[in-house]
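Sample pair:
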Amino acid sequence: MFRSAAARCTRLLQSSIGTRSFTSLPVIDVGPLVDPAAPRESVTAVAQQLHKACRDVGFFYIQNHGVPQHVTQGVLQQAHKWFALPAEVKASLLLSPASHYRGYQPLGINVTRHESGFVQDWHEALDLFREEDAAAVKAAGRPSSVLHGPNLWPDQLPDFSTALRAYIDACLTLGEQLLRGIALGLGLPEAYFGGQLAGPAGSYWVARVIHYPPLQQVGQQQAAAAAGGEVGREVQLSCGEHCDYGLLTLVNQDPHVTALQVKNASGQWVDAPPLPGTFVCNIGDMFQVLTNGMYKATLHRVLNTARGTPRVSAPFFYEPCFEAVLGPAPQLCRGQPPLFQPIRYGSHLESKVLRNFEL
């Protein structure tokens, strides 16, 4: 996942002990947000639920989200087929600096870093970003970026590329609707996160499709982790503990494997099992900045210990615009000095992406 340092997230969580001792994730019916005919009071009620979940947990399920099942399940089904292709076929889309850090990552290329080094994550993935033409960026007088460029679409399976495009379009629409609800819950104008901040026309979204084979070795520490226990940072997991460093993440996951875990303020790891017809959503570090610390990203990890059963997930990261400069909303500072300096999102993203891999 697109992530920030776990140690930093731990410090953030420690500041909110007592409000984040959850033992399960809330489930929110967001139907009124996606229904233009919904009564205003219904929209307001959903907005308050989103606010409470973001403030008190940082993770939540959404149901009645309006994305058709053939879109959510179709992308997972096609992903299973693509990851089953021969290694040399997948390697034709290999992620590298020359590919603008887009494309395919074999097992072990993704890493989770910690204070004394890193550990390889046991998954393979395909990464897509909002596409930016470098020449057009230059002509517009905007700074260049190592991330700007075209995607490497998995056209070896045309149905997979088609499914991904439909999924991305649906998630952009849903992400915008959720951000409108969160804005209302914060007492901000409904369109606060739109436009040049994080409007869907400019959101520097990231779509990942991740294949988690069962862990090769499930020793005592991995077994303890599967039961919700803490393990050393040197222990290999499917994806090590981290916070997402963007804005809002929507996770579409296989229905038959429980592998995602979320850490509460008491240090317990809480399972986020797949629930039919839902996305798992979580907030990233940018919401901490925008809300002046009211919201905080939550540590999470993935471990697939199911014998002989692979897991695929398709997280979609709805992110700010690349050139957006994010700072605390004045309405949320409550007369106090802002706790965070303004951040250009593109610079923040570059600093994180370039540390995700050992190429």
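The longest helix spans residues 158-185.
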